[in-house]
Design goal:
- The structure is a homodimer of 210-residue chains.
- The first copy, chain A, has helices spanning 11-22, 34-43, 68-77, 79-82, 110-117, 132-137, 154-166, 180-192, and strands at residues 4-7, 27-30, 48-51, 61-64, 86-89, 122-125, 146-151, 170-173, 204-208.
- Chain A has 210 residues and is of the alpha/beta class.
- Chain A has one domain (4-195): 3-Layer(aba) Sandwich (Rossmann fold), CATH 3.40.50.
- In chain A, strands 3-2-1-4-5-6-7-8 form an eight-stranded mixed sheet, with helices on both faces.
- The longest helix of chain A is centred in the last third of the chain and has 13 residues, at 154-166.
- The interface between A and B is large, with 40 and 39 residues.
- Strand 9 (204-208) of chain A pairs antiparallel with strand 9 (204-208) of chain B, so a sheet runs across the interface.
- Chains A, B: Keywords: Oxidoreductase.
Amino acid sequence: MTDITIIGAGNMTRGIATRALAGGHAVQILARDTAAAGTLAGELPGTVTTGPIGDAITGEIVVLALPYDAALAIAEQLREVLAGKIVVDITNPVDFATFDSLVTPDDSSSAEELAKVVPASKVVKAFNTTFAGPLVAGESDGHKLDVFVAADDAEAKAAVVSFVDSSGMRAIDAGALKRAQQLEGMGFLHMTLQGALGNTWSTGVKIVAA
Amino acid sequence: MTDITIIGAGNMTRGIATRALAGGHAVQILARDTAAAGTLAGELPGTVTTGPIGDAITGEIVVLALPYDAALAIAEQLREVLAGKIVVDITNPVDFATFDSLVTPDDSSSAEELAKVVPASKVVKAFNTTFAGPLVAGESDGHKLDVFVAADDAEAKAAVVSFVDSSGMRAIDAGALKRAQQLEGMGFLHMTLQGALGNTWSTGVKIVAA
């Protein structure tokens, strides 16, 4: 089993941790708000260790379950301890003031910007098209959740794919890290569609096969 | 019923025409290669009129089922007759030399570039995430095909949504025409995923709801 560390104590942490525990993975949650992390850990279906950001990271895979700006800031702060680690970027860098565009530079993505901040880490894009509710539920409309995984490091990508598949979801290899540009566009679109889809935030983006 | 005119005589024309005929819509196919249009019309399950590009357009909705460059060139040629019409852009402006990026300018899309060429037309983005095979089949893995529809003109968007729904698919309102940027990224991603998905080109991008 792959141990994972999730940084942040919000809804996406709840979702990813729930799936990880279902897959038998050890989970560590580190957060600035250690009280929130402790409360969340108590509500999760399994044993989770918690601590402040800065505690020794026990996971082989580190998930930054934070908004875009915060993820970059924490990554910069933890650059040295993240060196050599698999670091998963899950963010959609939406301009929340307008909800009409992304804040990342043209021809880049949250994942690629993160990779510039932690060049010695193996950055993987994943979980940016899966909402927290379906992650907790473990499915959407009876379907396994599709998790699109993009990375330049083949070994790191394989580790995340294995983590996803072993946690009851379906990993889809989405290619190189720069495909995060399209994945983040898709994640953003999935968010903007909520108005037309009833604002349940319980939908999933699925590739259906004939 | 809404009459539609499709320009081009390739696989996407076959797919969209098949669905349109299933919905009881009259279909006209105009193509440079009128022999190909005639052959295709003979293979379609219903009555289809054909002719060369330049023939009077009978459809209320005009679908440009052509590669990106060709679609822009034909639109420029037909600018006057397309004025006031609903013009549907279905293309993914992929750089086929590298299969690694889109050829459209940053912060734009095929649909927005088309709208610049035919400013008096009502440009609608649709059908760029649906492959030809599933359109002919009418489904993917037992699911109705999701067709994402983006446009600035509300009436034109409603007409295309109605056409899609009445032809046995599910239209999803994807917002303003600029959302074509994300839709084309998603369409491109769906194409690049084919390697990982077995190269069947029979998959569909579906929003599943809890």
